[in-house]
Amino acid sequence: MFSIDLKDIEFVGDDLARAECVLSTQSGDLFMPDKRGGISILRADGRRELLLGRNAPAGFMPNGIALLPDRSFLIADLGPEGGVWHMAPDGTLTPKLMEIDGRHLEPTNFVGIDAKGRTWVSVSTRLIPREGSMRKGHADGYIILIDERGARVVAEGIGFTNEAIVDPTGRWLYVNETIARCTSRFEIRADGSLGPKEVFAQYGVGTFPDGFAFDAEGAVWIVSVVSNRVIRATSDGRQELILEDADPVGLEAAETAFQNDTYTRAHLDSGGKRRLGNLSGIAFGGDDLKTVYLGSLFGTRLARFRSPIAGAPPVQWAF
Asked: I need a labelling partner for 228 at 20 to 30 A (CA). Which of 6, 78, 148, 210 fits?
C-alpha cells in the first residue's frame, strides 16, 4: 500500500472550467470537458486549447466525453437539453442520441466507447431537477448501449449512475453508483446485454464515487466528490486510501445530511472549497502510464502525481 501527501501534488494547465473527467492519450495530449460549452485540450508541450461547440443548445453542459479514432468527440450533455452529441474537430455539434423508448433523454452524465466500437451512456436519474435523487436509497439511474442494433436500455435501478466503463478484458462493464456509494459491474453477454449486477466495492462514510480508472493489476481507482478521496479497490475486497483532501467539519455535515435525507447540492459541492477542487475524474497517463491526473468540478488546473503502479491503457490511448 502507498499513499500520496498533498504536498507532493503538482498542478498542470490553467484556465480549465469544470474538468469533470480526463482522457489521456499516448501522444501526451489530455482532453477534458469544459463548462463553457466544449472541450479543453492540454497538449503534451503544455499548450492549452479550447474547442467550443458550434450551434450548441441553450445551457449546453459537457460532462462525460469520449474521444473517437478521428479525434472527434462524443459529449454527454448535463444541461437541460440532455442527450449525447457528436462534436467534429471544427466544433460542429450534431445530435447522436436524444431519446430512448420514445421519450427524450434527461440530463445525461457520461458517454464512453469500448474496444469493439460500442457506445455506453449513463443517465444518473429520471428526476428533473437531478438534486431530488440525491438521497439514500434512491435508485432510478440507467445505462444505454448503442451498437449496430441501435440504442437500448441495458441496466436500470442504479443509485445515481456515474461513469460506466468497460474493463480492459472486455468482459465487464463497471459503473460508479454515487448515491449508492459503490462500484458495481455487469458481465457483458455476446449480444451486448448485461448479466446481473455485482457490487465490486462498497464504500463507507464520506465516500461518494464519481470517476474511475483501471490499473495494470486489475484494480479500480475511484475518486470521490465531497471528500476529495482517491481509493484503490482490488478484486479481493481490499480498499486503499491513496489520497484525501477533506475538511473534517464539512465532511461530517455532508455525511449527517446524507443519513438524515437532508443532503443537497450544497453538500455535494462542499469539496470545491479544498485545494483539489472536488474530485470527479481520474486518468493514468505519461509515457509509462504511471502519472495519475485528477479532474475536478471546481479546479482551474489538473492535479497530478506519480504512482508505483501503471494504469491499464484506456481505449483511446492510441487515438
From this structure: 78
